[in-house]
């Protein structure tokens, strides 16, 4: 933290954040920063998508409200899984067909992967009703979370980038009813301890 405080004080950066830190580690960093008059992190970079929700929806919200740490999320399309391109197997030109991405291929062809593909098919109907693509639905779904400051997008073509950026226009359509329908299909909405007690 001393190094990051130095970098910010020298004008080389405006802020700093963490990546893949636990909520406890972030809170500890914040406490140490306050104790020694250092600059604390302002955001956490966390994986967040339709199939990876726990950290951003349960572990980090307390930090959003207590110390103002936001989430800069990555992989909104789950390494391409949410695009629907793996619906009928692994295309030869896809990331999952590469030797270094064997783990992704195994994930896609696993039983859980097949269940995810079935859920994506159902989510495609919601996207169709809203007039957007499945990737646009997924990115808009990420952006609708109040604790998400930004969503990092990856694309392999200008067309993909344009499509993904088009998600913003569907953000107003992410009503509580639509989100509830998505949650129903996914069946993976995490609950905080507070919600369990209610």
Automatic annotation (TrEMBL):
Its main location: cytoplasm. It is found in: Cytoplasm. The keyword Transport applies. This is Potassium voltage-gated channel subfamily A regulatory beta subunit 1. GO terms for biological process: potassium ion transport; regulation of potassium ion transmembrane transport; transmembrane transport. Residues 1-185 form the NADP-dependent oxidoreductase domain. It comes from Salmo trutta (Brown trout). Transmembrane segments: none annotated. It holds the Pfam family Aldo_ket_red. Belongs to the shaker potassium channel beta subunit family. Keywords: Cytoplasm, Ion transport, NADP, Oxidoreductase, Potassium, Potassium transport, Transport. GO terms for cellular component: cytoplasm; juxtaparanode region of axon; voltage-gated potassium channel complex.
